[in-house]
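Appendix B. One record, verbatim.
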Amino acid sequence: MEQEMDRRPSDSSGGSHVKLRKELGLVEGVAVILGIIIGSGIFISPVGVLQECGSVGMSLVVWTLCGVLSMIGALCYAELGTTIPKSGGDYAYILEAFGPLPAFLFLWDANLIFVPTTNAIMGLTFGNYVLQPFFPNCDVNSASVRLLAAAAICILTFVNCYNVKVTARLQNVFMVTKVSALLLVIIVGLVVLCMGKGQSFDNAFVGMKTDPGQIAVSFYSGIFSYAGWNYLNFMTEELRDPYRNLPRSIYLSLPLVTCIYVLANVSYLMVLSPAEMLASDAIAVTFANKTLGVMAWIMPLFVAFSAFGGLSVHIMTSSRLCFVGARNGHFPGSLALIGQSYVTPMPALVFLGLLSLVYLCTSDIFALINYASFIESSFILCSICGLLYLRWKDPHRERPIKVNILVPVVFLLICGFLVFMPLYVKPVEVGMGILITFTGVPAYLVFVYWKKKPAWALRAIARFNVFTQKLFLAVKEE
């Protein structure tokens, strides 16, 4: 997977155009989606899903339905991505359908909540799995985990700022470790099954929780593990032949990930009892300790690399969202600058890196997952509403891919259930998410809608932009 920005001469005076290049084909598109989806989630979320479901059988149902839901959503996003072939994903679709304010609120929440939160989760998972083998009989110090997570975020932000090609090459290595870790889990589970062991599936649905809100919350951990299926849409402008490669990348990736995830969870449950799973902070390490003997150390190494690789590609793709929003005037113009020396969106990368560090103040990974998943699900709901609205408003628009109307309707109903049912189960997380969303309204009115700002404010903005340009040796995209 390689992608970079194009820098070529524009005139005889020695100026230069700096812009994004179309470097992503089908293979690279699949690598981006797999690189984001298979990160830290599958190694931590099984505990969260089981905890909220209350039963082994229901947890597997949730994992399967999360994969099906992601595939249905991916079909909708294939239509959106080919109808509106612009980078920015949900931001571009909401902007096209509903205008600048809702699009700005998505950008506001993306950059303040679910992008840095996801970075923090991946960083914490990396830190936890690196340290777990050194503390086999006691809890890992949370401050040490946060320190390692911060180091990972800083290092990968620097690498993404320095050279996209280096990031792409590292991602190829990380992909091998991710798939190797999951295949190891699945193979061990099959061996246990062939040996006739594993009792977790006896009375599989005993203890299942039936409260609709609780069931909706149980989906959040599963959805987090599948998160990233729509991230290739953030980079549509960098895809070669997006009308073919965007949907094909999605269609190849999602069924593969769903099969791997369900089989991995079956393997976990073949080896570990529900009580052992719920007691574990690092489920893959507990799994390896029970099955791999002296080679158990290899599992935390694989998982750490997997989380590290997922964090790397997430930092790369999410920075494009910030970059596109700034390019459209919805975020400070300095975030739309491209470093001349390394031809990367350095200001956007550094900005998101700093915000990610803020979210390391807590080491409660499951609280962060619920917090991020609610907000992200809410805006996915808005994007699907936008698809249906554009079908009604502009029925004659060219749609290279047009799914059956039942597909977005079904996805809309399921997303609505997942968004609104947890309101009374997790009121603090939901309330804080809504509050942060509404803080974007005055920010929009002051910084975007209000055009006739006083001269002193305009001078301050201009000076800040000049300072950023000098700091990062950056220029505007042309």
